[in-house]
């Protein structure tokens, strides 16, 4: 366990907010704020995907490759770049492997405890590849949500000829909610210091 004492030099919490110091952007400057509530499951799903994607983009905006790869609290490997890589893999997994039944290879190598985060290093090429991969997977998820007439559609991985994946009984909306859930979990892991 890592113990922190009062005399240690800790990074200050970064914020652009001027109204509420416990927020990282003022409500009037937050592009995620909506004036109307989404209506129906598809509109709600799209709203949540857009809001959480935008949240991570906002956290990453203007940071250098080194800052994106900075670990939140050692020995943790959690970083903003790691989150981008992780969310690219999450969207890829649910959209391609679970819902479409594709044989999509993992983006960052074999599955492992730290596959998405461990190699998230402060190299501009690594950053560019991570954001490009995330964009491709977001586009694939958006296309699936748009093309799926019934969001209760059973995933390809539950069909009889996909028995090796039969453990998953996902619907389109459930798998996308799981993607949103991952984003929700990490929503509080914003910028610690610049």
Order of helices and strands: HHHHHH
| CATH superfamily caption | dinb family like domain
**Class, according to the CATH hierarchy?**
Mainly Alpha
Structural shape: flat
* Proportion in helices: 40-55%
Strand content: under 5%
In the CATH hierarchy, the architecture is Up-down Bundle
| Discrete helix count | 6
Please report the total strand number as a whole number: 0
Distance between the termini: 25 Å
Question: Low-confidence runs (pLDDT<50, min 5 residues)?
Answer: 159-169, 180-194
Gyration radius over CA: 18 Å
The secondary structure category is mainly alpha
Give your account of this protein's structure.
The chain has 194 residues and is mainly alpha-helical. It has a single domain (39-186), classed as Four Helix Bundle (Hemerythrin (Met), subunit A), CATH 1.20.120. Helices cover 46% and strands 0% of the residues. The chain is flat, with a radius of gyration of 18 Å.
């Amino acid at each position: 366990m890592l113990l922190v004492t009062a005399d240690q030099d800790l990074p200050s919490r970064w914020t652009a907010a001027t109204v509420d110091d416990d927020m990282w952007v003022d409500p009037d400057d937050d592009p995620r704020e909506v004036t109307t509530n989404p209506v129906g499951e598809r509109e709600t799903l799209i709203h949540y995907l857009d809001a959480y994607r935008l949240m991570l983009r906002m956290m990453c905006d203007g940071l250098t490759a080194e800052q994106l790869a900075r670990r939140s609290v050692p020995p943790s490997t959690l970083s903003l770049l790691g989150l981008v890589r992780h969310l690219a893999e999450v969207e890829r997994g649910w959209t391609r492997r679970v819902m479409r039944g594709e044989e999509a290879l993992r983006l960052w190598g074999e599955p492992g405890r730290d596959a998405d985060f461990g190699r998230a290093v402060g190299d501009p090429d690594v950053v560019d590849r991570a954001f490009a991969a995330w964009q491709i997977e977001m586009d694939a998820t958006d296309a699936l949500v748009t093309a799926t007439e019934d969001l209760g559609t059973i995933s390809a991985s539950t069909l009889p000829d996909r028995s090796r994946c039969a453990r998953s009984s996902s619907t389109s909306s459930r798998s996308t909610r799981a993607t949103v859930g991952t984003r929700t979990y990490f929503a509080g892991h914003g910028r610690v210091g610049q």
